[in-house]
Amino acid sequence: MDHIFQADDHLLVIGQRIHAETHTHHYAHLMLCLEPDPARTLSVRIGSDTVACRGLLLDGGVEHAFYGKDGLHALLLIDHTSRLWRELKAHHLPARQTYAVLPEPLTRALAARFAAMTAAACRSCYHSHWRGVLKQLGLDPRLAGHAPSDGRLRGVLARIRRSPADERSIRHLARQIHLSPSRLSHLFKQQTGGTLKHYLLFQQLLDALGAVAQHNSVSAAALDAGFDTPSHLSATCRRLIGIPPSMVRNVSGFLKAPKPVPS
Hints:
It contains ten helices and eleven strands.
């Protein structure tokens, strides 16, 4: 039972073959073990620590590895520029900590909600369950959008999402807001804590996965999304998400959720 749900500010992967060796990127993580047996745990290596638990919240930019080949797990990757991550971090990640083990009652509630998502797997149902996830996390169910205070940067983030791969270079984006590439990169780092280069790479990856889900070949999806070679796409996907891109074609459901309508 493998499912992938893609939205503007997050990517949710639910499956039994999620496994990522040591890597670092700036998307934040919420990880859950979905096995019903409370003795089953997920295993995450964070720096030199190995953490075994049922649920974990991990900040972006932290070296980690995720071992999820044994059992059903959920991996929620959260855009670190989003209001979602800003609020989630404020509510559940203590200051100056890079990760937090989630309380068991919250883990059980989230696991039940994610299981319901896979059973429904339709766009309207997904948004209903996603609002439920946000409520369980103590967040506003209407939460959406980007957190940077600089309007120029919010415009760049919106442009990245709607532009084709060949219009997403740092030089091209900087030209649109009359900044130098180095100044835009500095502004992005200052406002989000991550690098624009890595953010663009992750957007390329999301584009490629969406194309594979639409029955394009991995080779065509890689080149259309701006990867140099199909092997570059495969290596990036395994390193950042822990799955091969071909898995997207074989999942029980790949849902690209539209923007929710505020309630």
